[in-house]
Amino acid sequence: MSYPISLTVNGLRRDVTLEDARVTLLDLLRERLALPGTKKGCDRGQCGACTVLIDGRRINSCLTLAVTLDGAEVITIEGLANGDMLHPVQAAFVEQDGFQCGYCTPGQIMSAVGLIAEGHAGTDPERIREGMSGNLCRCAAYHGITRAVSDATR
Ligand code: FES
Fold first, then answer.
1. What ranges make up the beta strands (E) of the chain?
2. What superkingdom heads the lineage (predicted)?
């Protein structure tokens, strides 16, 4: 059985036929749509490395079945910058050293963009840490991440 879906990814309409209803959005992005910026960490909803926005809300793409996304709008890390101009959250991560090895950074940034859009971030470090608690950083660059989210919120 095949499952045709049509979704918008980073502003481009993508028509895809899935051969398997169990394909996750994460695998669709990385393996079919050549968008490897979204990272696979745990592949079970525990690390946040795979965070993207669906219709403006942050989700773990490893837990989301692509077949459920017909008509959805997806934004990945590749869709944030405007040409050579970094998105303000990306710029804040650079400015505040909000990363070390960088593997979790796309997920951290997408989660921060979603958190700020939700209006719950503020600049209080405790609130930011709580709002970003679904995104793990094995290098423990949390101070820089928190500063970056705070800066980007201002
Ligand atoms: Fe999706 Fe870890 S790869 S939460």
1. 3-9, 12-18, 51-54, 57-60, 73-75
2. Bacteria
Q: Residue 45: CB within 6 Å of ligand 1?
A: yes
Q: Tens digits of per-residue pLDDT, 8-17?
A: 999 999 999 9
Q: Which residues lie below 8 Å from residue 31, measured CB to CB, with a gap of 6+?
A: none
Give nearest CA residue, ligand 1 atom 4: 45
State how far Cα 144 lies from the chain centre. Answer: 18
Can you give the residue range of the structural domain that contains 109?
A: 88-153
- What is the pTM assigned to this prediction? 0.96
| CA–CA gap between residue 6 and residue 9 (Å, rounded) | 10
Same domain (yes/no): 73, 17? yes
Out of 62, 65, 77, 110, mutate this one to test ligand 1's pocket (max ligand atoms within 8 Å of CB): namely 62
ipTM for the complex shown: 0.98
Answer whether 107 contacts ligand 1 (Cβ < 6 A): no
What tens digit of pLDDT does each residue of 28-44 get? 999 999 999 999 999 99
Ligand 1 contact via 50 beta carbon (within 6 Å): yes
Instruction: Mark whether 54 and 93 lie in a shared domain.
Output: no
